[in-house]
Design a protein that fits this description.
The chain is mostly beta strands. The protein has three helices and 41 strands.
Length: 498
């Protein structure tokens, strides 16, 4: 973990101080609201308490300057005679025309997302007295023109090397500017790659880590869409969740023998990755047929999203988690063994070519009918494969639909729900873009408002008395619905107008 005070650092202290300031502003200045001042033609929004100025309104509704402010901005060191010491979270967010920002020596703390989505920002200068940046990787998120972060040489907590932001000791790489191109070798002495440090670096093509690196934090390389290769060092111990999320061109990565912690979804969305080798000498993890397992269990950890065709989970695996197969667009069928006792609700989300989930008949907890996953009694429908095509009639003995059971099932064209089901839960059929016809029985007494979220092409519905407002039940397709059959309380059908 990072031990310098620029860790999530004084982040906690910053948040506490910022909340005190905002609270004081709201109470002491309730009559006149958030303060503003115009300096050098720029109108600033700020809060004051105990003589300390926080630039930005302390609320996401208020940016520090108007979002159309353009060019070079030199943040003032004082406002109305008081020192400017804090920059609020999101203070300059979406100021898309700023090209350079100069931070004065008076600033000591910067909140998260302070400069996020400053799309034209090319450089920024950090002053000598800045001691705390809350979530550095998020501070410049979506700053796609940023080439350089400058740091005053006298700053005791941060430094810049070739425009890249590090802590002063050089052991934590905090932020890599998004416009840098090509391969990058992380300097010797770096121990931690901070969360989102390389996130959305579209020009990054390969990364080599030195032996000193011990930890890769959450989403550190997320959405580096042109990253094709990563050389992980021996000595690396921890890769946190979603570290390489949506690195869609990443085709080669090997987990070294030193790894002893892998977070969920570390390679989710890496559609070019067909196999994930693990050093045979690793004591905790192993690769079986290109899939990463924790030896103790065994427990399935990471499935290569680019692998194509069917997959059979090895017997002995007891739990399958939500991130295990998510976004595996090449997966066509999934076979679950007798040993599995627990399955995550989002196990196969975004597996758009999955047409069948089968279950070993001797499994005591789950069953499959026509490639659809149920509990053992077949009274709870749990997961419907996203790639399964055509109309579907839910079996008569089903009494419950799982949350999101049919979500993203774009092959589904019509659904008939049987009598006996009482509720259609949250997102049960959300994002079923090709769903045209829906039949809901009289037994249903509650339809969650998001049950058919983003179902934009429904034209025909059969609905029970509990559905009184088509716009609320089918918010994205009610204008297209031309055929409505309304069921009476006695199950008699009657045609109805919209």
């Amino acid at each position: 973990m990072i031990t310098t005070k620029c860790s999530f650092y004084a982040g906690a202290a910053f948040i506490t101080l910022a909340m005190l300031i905002v609270s004081a502003c709201c109470s002491v200045q309730e009559s006149d609201g958030v303060k503003t001042a115009k300096i050098n033609g720029v109108r600033y929004t700020y809060c004051i308490t105990n003589g300390v100025v926080m630039i930005g309104g302390g609320d996401e509704r208020y940016t520090a300057v108007p979002t159309n402010t353009a060019g070079v901005l030199k943040i003032p060191s004082t406002l109305r005679g008081r020192p400017v010491e804090l920059i609020a979270p999101g203070a300059f967010e979406h100021c898309e025309n700023l090209t350079e920002i100069i931070i004065p020596d008076s600033i000591t703390n910067i909140g998260s997302r302070a400069f996020s989505s400053c799309a034209s920002l090319r450089s920024i200068t950090i002053s000598k007295n800045l001691v705390a940046i809350e979530k550095p990787g998020e501070m410049f998120d979506y700053c796609h023109q940023l080439t350089t972060i400058n740091v005053d040489n006298d700053n005791p907590d941060y430094k810049s090397v070739n425009g890249i932001l590090f802590d002063k000791s050089g052991t934590t790489l905090l932020f890599y500017p998004r416009t840098k191109q090509g391969a990058y070798t992380v300097p010797d002495n770096v121990e931690t790659i901070e969360r989102l440090a390389f996130g959305r670096c579209l020009g990054l093509t390969s990364v080599t880590l030195p032996p000193s690196v011990r930890e890769i934090q959450f989403c550190a390389f997320a959405a580096c869409s042109n990253l094709t290769a990563v050389s992980l060092n021996e000595g690396l111990r921890s890769i946190k969740a979603m570290a390489f999320y949506e690195c869609t061109r990443l085709s080669a990565i090997t987990l070294p023998k030193s790894i002893d912690y892998i977070g969920g979804g570390i390679l989710m969305g890496c559609h070019s990755l067909v196999s994930i080798p693990v050093d045979p000498q690793n004591a905790k993890y192993e690769s079986i047929d290109g899939v990463v397992f924790k030896k103790e269990g065994p427990l399935l950890m990471t499935y290569p999203c680019g692998r194509k065709g069917p997959y059979s989970v090895p017997d002995g695996v007891k739990r399958l988690y939500s991130a295990n197969f998510r976004d595996s667009i090449g997966l066509t069928s999934l076979a679950i063994p007798a040993s599995v006792e627990e399955i995550g609700s989002s196990l196969v989300n975004a597996c758009s070519n999955l047409t069948a989930i089968t279950v070993e008949p001797t499994n005591a907890n789950f069953a499959s009918i026509d490639g659809v996953l149920f509990d053992k009694a077949c009274t709870n429908l749990l997961l419907y494969p996203e790639g399964k095509q055509g109309a579907y009639t839910i079996p008569q003995n089903v009494r419950h639909l799982a949350t999101s059971a049919f979500r993203f099932c774009n092959g589904l064209t019509a659904i008939i729900i049987p009598d006996g089901i009482r509720e259609i839960p949250f997102c049960a059929f959300a994002y079923c873009n090709n769903l045209i016809a829906v039949t809901i029985p009289n037994s249903v007494t509650n339809v969650n408002p998001a049950a058919f979220y983003e179902c934009a092409n429904i034209t025909s519905v059969t609905i029970p008395p509990c559905v009184t407002n088509l716009q609320e039940t089918f918010p994205h397709s009610y204008e297209k619905i031309t055929n409505v059959v309304r069921l009476s309380a006695q199950n008699n059908r009657s045609s109805g107008d919209l």
